[in-house]
Amino acid sequence: xxxxxxxxxxxxxxxxxxxxxxxxxxxxxxxxxxxxxxxxxxxxxxxxxxxxxxxxxxxxxxxxxxxxxxxxxxxxxxxxxxxxxxxxxxxxxxxxxxxxxxxxxxxxxxxxxxx
Length: 115
What we know:
By secondary structure, the protein is mainly alpha-helical. The chain is built from 4 helices and 2 strands, in the order H-H-H-E-E-H. A two-stranded antiparallel sheet has the order 1-2. A hairpin with a 2-residue loop joins strand 1 and strand 2 (about 100). Helix 2 crosses helix 3 (about 75-85).
């Protein structure tokens, strides 16, 4: 059984990870026109595991979230991202390529363009 202190460390770690994920989504949005990187699960996982031979991932080599996780499946990351959407930390847009995770501001911008 976990002690209160252990639970607090895990919760603090998850809060920090959530902030890193939001920062990564925002960075992908900010560099989208230049690098053509989109915040789909595979792209985000490649960045998080520090996959050097991926097309977009090395662009973020100097970021705190690059390579911060050793192993992560696509399904695990999708569950984490879906939970962040459920908790209203991020939005998601369903595309022909899959779920595109985005910030609320980016989602509003796309909705305005669609009108």
